[in-house]
């Protein structure tokens, strides 16, 4: 006689197309990348396979190992990875998630890349850090045309090659940024790392960096002080002649999440570097990189929300309790619908910002002005919303969601990261205030975008309240988070009115703008069209 049989359990969510996402696909067409629909769908199909989903598990269960010395005692500063990490990276590079759009003249190339980044992040988030940094490095690198001409082709082609090797001898390169020091954190003007000019035009860089992500990258964009102030430098891990540069990997960080990604402490011990941009203008140079990675933080958070609620909806479709499937029970339908509304608002904003970014790279000044403010607002808000969203998605599984094998704990541990990366909440909020003070045109562009929703009463009331609060920018810092939250909500509401599903739009406005909800997910009012909302999130398997 058997002790038990397994029943009333959902199968793993495998064999579905991750890109089966109407908000994503509509956004591709609307934002000028209709030509990429097939490519995004193909990547989504691959991302949903059991094999690829397992790559994400293996990369996190077998985190990177630092190998500072070989067995004879020679310094090698190498990192050992599970093969799954290389599978993830090589697929991302082959699909152009790194620097490829910068060499692609087609309109919408950055939109297509954003959609692919969204889809592929569903599999595993850690490896997307070097992918994002490589993408973001190119605008900063172009401040030195000679360096850009040498390295940009290797940062944007479709080849991935692991291991330490002279950069010009590798098929393709990855980049990262190296800014943060223990005494300064986000205050990078407090950095103490020094750079000393050499007769040959290079610099010798000396100092310690407290947090450098993707330390396995081939190229570091590092900040160091010269007599003129903070300056940006390109520092290769291996010099052009094939010798190791004097970059020491001291230790890898033991992080809450993002465990597959080798973030670490490094020391520059007379490392060789080449200046990017003017001396003393390192902050504006590196900000070009930071802004790109901020967009990816938002995309990754939107992707994480989509993964969480999709997993929860799949579980609820096959799990019964108290005589009925969970997804048919009114309270669970409310929770899942509320999570869906949040997810769709985030995805819609992500696609709109990707479109603005694409057009701004092609000289559209109006889109540049809109992006300057909207990106800072969107990064702050969407990344802030993800942790609570991930927790609620996990709770839909009950105790099963607390077990590592469900993969929901990995998603939950990942969720706080994007709010910290590239400027935590307060840094992002202060950046919004700076943008409004320095560029009043960006404020005008923001409200012009919101106004495209037409005479929607709730949006109009919220806009009037915001504009009243913005009359005193000098005294706005203490209220910055309140104002930015409201600005994010009116922008999302406007986009939903224009482009979203009516059921999602109505629920969002009623609860996020008009306040007809509680303080947690699952408190939508009774008149919401739950069936229409859930139909947009429940995955199709097989």
UniProtKB/TrEMBL annotation:
Pfam family, one: Acyl-CoA_dh_1
InterPro entries (UniProt xref): Acyl-CoA_dehydrogenase-like, Acyl-CoA_DH_CS, Acyl-CoA_Oxase/DH_mid-dom, AcylCo_DH-like_C, AcylCo_DH/oxidase_C, AcylCoA_DH/oxidase_NM_dom_sf, AidB_N
Domain Acyl-CoA dehydrogenase/oxidase C-terminal: 280-436
Signal peptide feature range: none
Annotated ranges, domain Adaptive response protein AidB N-terminal: 8-161
Sequence ranges assigned to domain Acyl-CoA oxidase/dehydrogenase middle in this UniProt record: 177-270
Swiss-Prot/TrEMBL keywords: FAD, Flavoprotein, Oxidoreductase
Cofactor(s) annotated in UniProt: FAD
Keyword Glycoprotein (UniProt): no
Keyword Transferase carried by entry: no
Similarity-based family: Belongs to the acyl-CoA dehydrogenase family.
Protein's name in the database: DNA alkylation response protein
């Amino acid at each position: 006689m058997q002790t038990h049989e397994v029943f009333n359990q959902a199968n793993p969510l495998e064999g579905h197309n991750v890109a089966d996402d109407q908000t994503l696909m509509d956004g591709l067409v609307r934002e000028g990348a209709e030509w990429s629909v097939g490519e995004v769908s193909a990547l989504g199909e691959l991302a949903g396979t059991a094999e690829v989903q397992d790559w994400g598990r293996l990369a996190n269960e077998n985190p990177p190992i630092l190998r500072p010395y070989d067995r004879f005692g020679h310094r090698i500063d190498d990192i050992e990875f599970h093969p799954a990490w290389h599978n993830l990276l090589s697929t991302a590079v082959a699909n152009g998630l790194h620097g490829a759009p910068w060499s692609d003249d087609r309109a919408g190339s950055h939109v297509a890349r954003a959609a692919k980044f969204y889809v592929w992040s569903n599999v595993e988030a850690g490896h997307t850090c070097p992918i994002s940094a490589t993408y973001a490095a190119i605008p900063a690198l172009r401040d030195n045309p000679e360096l850009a001409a040498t390295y940009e082709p290797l940062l944007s082609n479709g080849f991935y090659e692991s291991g330490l090797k002279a950069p010009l001898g590798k098929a393709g390169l990855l980049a990262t940024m190296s800014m943060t020091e223990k005494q300064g954190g986000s205050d990078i003007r407090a950095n103490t790392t020094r750079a000393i000019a050499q007769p040959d035009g290079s610099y010798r860089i000396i100092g310690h960096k407290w947090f450098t992500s993707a330390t396995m990258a081939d190229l570091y964009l590092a900040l160091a002080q010269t007599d003129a102030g903070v300056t940006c430098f390109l520092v290769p891990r291996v010099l052009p002649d094939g010798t190791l540069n004097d970059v020491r990997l001291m230790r890898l960080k033991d992080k809450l999440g993002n465990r597959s990604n080798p973030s670490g402490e490094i020391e520059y011990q007379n490392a060789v570097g080449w200046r990017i941009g003017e001396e003393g203008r390192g902050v504006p140079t590196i900000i070009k990189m930071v802004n790109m990675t901020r967009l990816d933080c938002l995309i990754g958070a939107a992707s994480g929300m989509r993964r969480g609620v999709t997993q929860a909806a799949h579980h609820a479709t096959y799990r019964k309790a108290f005589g009925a499937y969970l997804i048919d029970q009114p309270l669970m339908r409310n929770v899942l619908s509320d999570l869906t509304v949040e997810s769709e608002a985030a995805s819609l904003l992500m696609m709109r910002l990707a479109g603005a970014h694409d057009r701004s790279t092609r000289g559209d000044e109006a889109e540049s002005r809109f992006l300057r403010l909207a990106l800072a607002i969107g990064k702050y808000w969407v990344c802030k919303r993800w942790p609570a969203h991930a927790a609620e998605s996990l709770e839909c599984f009950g105790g099963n969601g607390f077990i590592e094998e469900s993969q929901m704990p990995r998603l939950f541990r990942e969720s706080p990261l994007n709010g910290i990366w590239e400027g935590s909440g307060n840094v992002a909020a202060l950046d919004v205030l700076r943008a409004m003070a320095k560029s009043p045109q960006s404020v005008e562009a923001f409200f012009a975008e919101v106004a495209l929703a037409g005479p929607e009463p709730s949006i109009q009331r919220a806009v009037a309240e915001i504009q009243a609060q913005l009359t005193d920018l000098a005294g706005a810092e203490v209220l910055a988070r309140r104002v930015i939250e409201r600005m994010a909500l009116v922008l999302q509401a406007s986009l939903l009115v224009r482009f979203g599903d009516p059921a999602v739009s109505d629920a969002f406005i009623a609860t996020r703008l008009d306040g007809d909800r509680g303080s947690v997910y699952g408190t939508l009012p009774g008149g919401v069209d739950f069936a229409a909302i859930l139909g947009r999130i429940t995955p199709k398997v097989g």
